[in-house]
Automatic annotation (TrEMBL):
This is S-methylmethionine:homocysteine methyltransferase. It holds the Pfam family S-methyl_trans. Keywords: Metal-binding, Methyltransferase, Transferase, Zinc. Coiled coil: none annotated. Zn(2+) binds at C232, C297, C298. Its cofactor is Zn(2+). GO terms for biological process: methionine biosynthetic process; methylation; S-methylmethionine cycle. GO terms for molecular function: S-adenosylmethionine-homocysteine S-methyltransferase activity; zinc ion binding. It comes from the Bacteria. Residues 3-312 form the Hcy-binding domain.
Amino acid sequence: MSNPIESLLAQHSLAILDGALATELEARGCDLKDPLWSAKVLIEQPELIYAVHYDYFAAGADVAISASYQATFEAFASRGFSTEQSAGLMRQAVQLAVNARDDFWHSLNADQQSRRPRPLVAASVGPYGAMLADGSEYRGHYDLDENELMAFHRPRLEVLLSAGADLLACETLPCLSEARALARLMDAHPDACGWISFSCSSEEHNSQGERLSDCVAALESFHSVVALGLNCTAPEHVSALLQSVQGLTDKPVLVYPNSGEQYDAEQKCWHGPANSEQYAQAAARWHHHGARLIGGCCRTSPADIAAVSALLRPAE
C-alpha cells in the first residue's frame, strides 16, 4: 500500500485541501434540494463539478475530494438506476476530479510545477447517515452495528477503490463505530488507504457525543488510515479539538471545517458573515495547533482556499 499523504508531507510542511463542493455548486445555480444532494449534479450537469474541482486546484488546493459523498447504490436505486449504472456514476465522480487535476497540472509550466505538489484526488465516502438524507451524520446513534455498517459500505468502497483516486476520504462520520467499520474495510484491502474525518458538535466531542480523543486513539493501529481529523464542524471548535488529540496519534491530523455561517434548517438558508481573510487566519491557528492538512467544508469557496494558500503556503 502506498501512502500519498505521507509522500506529499515528506516534501511539504502542509497539504491544502479543497473547499465545499455542494454549496459551491449551489452558488453557481444548482438546485440541490434533493436527497442525492451533489450527486444529483453528476446526473444533470457533470461539467459543473469538473469546473469547481479545477477552480480549487487553481486556488492552491493540493487535494480534491470527489462528488461521491452521497453517491450510494441505495440512493441511486431509489431513482431507478441499476447497480451497473450506479457504479458508473460513482466512477464518473472520481474521473471528473482526476480530469480536472490532470488538465490543471498540464496547464502549468515546469517552474510552476516545481513549486507545489502534484495534486491528489480523494474519493469521498460519505457516512451511512448521508444516504438516509435525514441529518443522521450530525447525530449518529444508528440502528446498525459495526458489521452491518461494513456491509453497507463494502460495495461502494470496492467501486471507488477501482475508480482511479489516490486515496479515500471517509468523511463527516458521526461516530467511532462507523469509523472502525471503514478502517476495517480499508485494512482488509491490499491497495486501500484513506483518511478518517469526524463531524464534531463541541470542542471535545464528535456528533454522537464520543470524545474525539478517544476516537483518534482507537484508530491509531489501522495501517490503512493515513490521516485523522474532523470536517463539517463549526470553526470555533477546531483549535480545542486539535489540542485534545495532541500526542495521541503519529498520523497527520486534518481539519476542514465549515465557513462559520449558521444554517437555518427551517428556512433552508445560511446566515452570518463569510470572510476569506478571517478563515485563513483561523487556518493559521489550526496549523499552529498541529493540523497538517487544512481545507474547508460547507460554504467555503475557492476564494477561501486561495486565502489559505496565500497565507500558509511556505516558500519551498
